[in-house]
Design a protein that fits this description.
The complex is a heterodimer of chains A (399) and B (310). Chain A is of the alpha/beta class and 399 residues long. Chain A is built from 12 helices and 17 strands. Helix content of chain A is 44%, strand content 20%. In chain A, the strands form 4 sheets. In chain A, strands 1, 2, 3, 4, 5, 6 and 7 form a 7-stranded mixed beta sheet that branches. A 4-stranded parallel beta sheet of chain A has the order 9-8-10-11, with helices on both faces. In chain A, a hairpin with a 5-residue loop joins strand 2 (66-67) and strand 3. Chain B has helices at residues 2-26, 34-51, 56-78, 84-103, 128-131, 136-158, 161-171, 173-178, 183-209, 219-232, 237-254, 260-276, 289-292, 299-309, and strands at 108-110, 113-115. The chains are: A alpha/beta (399), B mainly alpha (310).
Chain lengths: 399, 310
């Protein structure tokens, strides 16, 4: 009797052990963490990115997850940290993420956070004299040009504004040969908008033969634009280019409408090709033309946009990057053969970094994204314009 | 562990910022110029290491001394105004400094790269610590040694005649003048000392974040600078430290998980703290060791308290 009980107990134990091992295999997880501004003035960008990441990982997990080195499958778990678009907080958040079992971080939202954040990372991989943080970051939103070069641990999937605006002004020159002058409006205290006007839009416009007849500056927190609009009206420009985020873009557009300023072409900042602009000033934004690396122009893009909306966010060029980052990381993890154990964490992070650095192409929602050796990307894009409270594709340079 | 060391670094630089305002507040002056001094220190120390290859210690000291000189110069005209007018005047100075750096472009070539302030783009690559092999715990130790030295110095000053003079001017200028105290020297001296501490704090800050830009040194930072000593209480330097831990440690880092609600709760908790402790978390009078350990105060202290009450 005792022997029978002993055998039965042993059988039960072995079965339980086998079942728990199987369950553990199924329960394997890898962590990919997002961070950025999900509160404050630009909080909507972080909220959309968070929703896009969440939707993308849900899709990946539903399709079986990612494959580890031993051939087993792992689910991706994620969370999102708020840095309030503050450099000190961004650094603190990244250090916190690096102390967890996260393989890589996706973020940040703001370029003024990205720049110091990338500065605390090791500049050159394997440089033993550099004690910077060794943790891979794959940026989705912070779009100011040239930031990936700060550290070899940084990769970005943000579109090349230099290429997009160069093409846009070339296209405007070709389609509106009679236009001669341009007036710029810039949100001066925001790294992205300022850089894009002075280093991108203005140079591209001049290169394609447009004369810059004036510039108006304002700040992110400004609410009165009458002086800036008055200066604009005096010059009667053919084109007005506004390099500002949706909040002040709408303020300026409303003031332009009030002062009856009607340029023949209105150009906006990439970040303003979003729902916020339309919900803030759809009527005044009518005709606003913006190059963007996302528009729901194919089945993949449409279904991704629907999945993000279901998660409470909106798909725009920034959150589309977050979605694409998740998909690119899935492929990199599958190819890199990570082990996904606490002991292999540092090696796994390095494998992901190396995997990203060797990519030359990655599939995006609008087509193939080119990965550049410095960690930046060149993505397919279209020109959209605001029409009847929606964004409509005006021109597809790739077609 | 890196995260906690990083957090200690934030506490350290904010403590220096708060102490810079504490010294000025002791003389009854509310200065919103501390963010401007902090910015001068940040850019100066960044320039010393990133542009001219100096060691961090002289760089931070130069930043402190340069800022002290600027603060001394600012201190004289600021003497002509007081109260709200001083707040406006120092706020204007802070904005002036911020806009100066907004427009400052001065770069030199180092290692094939242009390094230095680049207007609104900011000042990138202030990477003295990682480039020179400093581990994060060493950086944290360096910061806290400086913080400790400054705190000990202020604690000592607070217990000397100089400290009594500062507080006397802060309590009642007319009475202080009537007993022969030189108000100009005291106020300008406090402003200079505050500038020195803010300059050192800014210099260290620049090296912990590696990139600085004008936008960081705005009104919000100036408000934080005076909020620390006011929230902590002017009774002792430890009030500022407690307030930094409360704001940076609890309200900002501890409540991060609350998302959007954090900002709302942030304000509400500060209002609550000020209502519960109107003279600051540690009060107007520094707690004595005897009180902390529950020992009875002696008759001399009691008689002083009675006199104060009268």
């Amino acid at each position: 009797m005792k022997l029978k009980s002993f055998l039965a107990a042993g059988l039960v134990s072995v079965s339980a052990l086998a079942m728990s091992t199987a369950a553990m295999a199924e329960d394997k997880t890898v962590r990919i963490v997002g961070f950025g501004a999900s509160s404050g003035v630009v909080g909507i960008f972080g909220q959309n990115s968070s929703a896009a990441m969440s939707a993308a990982f849900e899709k990946i997990n539903a399709e079986g997850g990612v494959t580890l080195a031993d051939g087993s499958k792992a689910q991706i778990v994620t969370e999102y940290y708020d840095d309030r678009c503050n450099a000190e907080e961004g650094i603190s958040v990244l250090r916190r993420i690096a102390t967890t079992d996260a393989l890589i971080a996706i973020g940040p939202t703001c370029s003024n956070v990205a720049e110091p954040l990338f500065g605390i990372l090791q500049a050159k991989v394997d440089d033993s004299g550099d004690t910077g943080l060794q943790f891979p970051v794959f940026t989705d939103v912070a779009i100011k040009g040239g930031l990936a070069g700060i550290s070899e641990w940084v990769f970005r999937n943000t579109p090349s504004e230099a290429k997009m605006y160069d093409d846009l002004f070339a296209w405007i020159r070709a389609t509106h040969p009679d236009l001669k002058t341009i007036y710029g409006g810039v949100e001066e205290d925001f790294a992205h908008s300022r850089f894009t006007w002075y280093e991108v839009m203005k140079k591209a416009a001049e290169q394609h033969g447009f004369e810059v007849v004036g510039e108006a500056q304002w700040l992110l927190s400004d609410t009165n634009f009458s002086n800036q609009a008055r200066g604009m009206r005096r010059e009667e420009p053919d084109i007005v280019a506004i390099s500002a985020h949706p909040f002040t873009t709408c303020g300026m557009l409303r003031e332009m409408a009030r002062q009856k300023i009607q340029p023949k072409v209105l150009v906006g900042l990439t970040s303003s090709s979003s729902l916020e602009t339309l919900s803030g000033c759809a009527a005044e934004a009518q005709g606003l033309t913006i190059p963007t690396s996302f528009a729901p122009v194919n089945d993949d893009a449409r279904s991704a946009a629907e999945a993000v909306v279901a998660k409470g966010g909106q798909m725009d060029l920034h959150s589309a990057s977050a979605w694409e980052n998740a998909m690119i990381l899935r492929d990199v993890i599958n190819a890199a053969g990570i082990e996904g154990t606490p002991e292999s964490l540092d090696a796994d992070r390095r494998k992901i970094r190396d995997g990203l650095s060797t990519l030359t192409e990655a599939q995006g929602l609008l087509g193939v994204n080119q990965r550049l050796p410095d960690g930046e990307a060149v993505k397919p894009y279209v020109f959209v314009h605001a029409k009847d409270a929606g964004w409509e594709v005006l021109h597809d340079p790739g077609s | 562990m890196d995260f906690y060391f990083g957090l200690l670094q934030i506490f350290g630089v904010h403590t220096l910022l708060g102490l810079s305002a504490y010294v000025v507040l002791l003389t009854g002056q509310v200065s919103m110029a501390q963010a401007g001094f902090y910015a001068i220190g940040a850019y100066a120390a960044g320039a010393c290491t990133a542009m001219f290859g100096m060691h961090i210690l002289p760089a931070v000291l130069i930043a402190g001394l340069l800022t002290a000189v600027v603060a001394c110069v600012v201190g004289f005209p600021a003497l002509r105004v007081k109260g709200l007018m001083l707040v406006v005047a120092t706020l204007a100075f802070g904005e002036m400094v911020r806009l100066f750096f907004f427009n400052l472009t001065w770069q030199v070539e180092r290692g094939g790269e242009m390094v230095g302030p680049n207007g609104a783009e900011g000042f990138r690559s202030i990477r003295y610590f990682p480039e020179n092999g400093w581990e994060i715990w060493q950086v944290t130790g360096f910061i806290w040694i400086i913080v400790a030295v400054i705190m000990v110095a202020l604690w000592w000053v607070d217990r000397t005649r100089a400290g009594a003079v500062l507080r006397a001017v802060g309590h009642d200028e007319t009475a202080a003048q009537s007993i022969g105290l030189n108000l100009t020297a005291v106020k300008v001296g406090a402003m200079t000392a505050g500038g020195f501490i803010a300059g050192i704090g800014g210099g260290i800050y620049a090296h912990t974040v590696t990139h600085i830009e004008h936008g960081v040194f705005g009104v919000l930072l100036a408000t934080f600078a005076i909020a620390y000593p006011i929230l902590g209480g002017l009774g002792s330097i430890f009030g500022t430290l407690i307030a930094v831990l409360f704001i940076q440690g609890f309200l900002i880092e501890g409540l991060r998980f609350m998302g959007d609600w954090r900002s709302l709760l942030f304000g509400a908790l500060i209002v609550l703290a000020m209502n519960l402790r109107p003279t600051g978390l540690l009060g107007e009078h520094a707690p004595r060791l005897s009180q902390l350990f529950g020992r009875k105060t002696n008759d001399h202290d009691k008689s002083l308290e009675l006199k104060e009450a009268e």
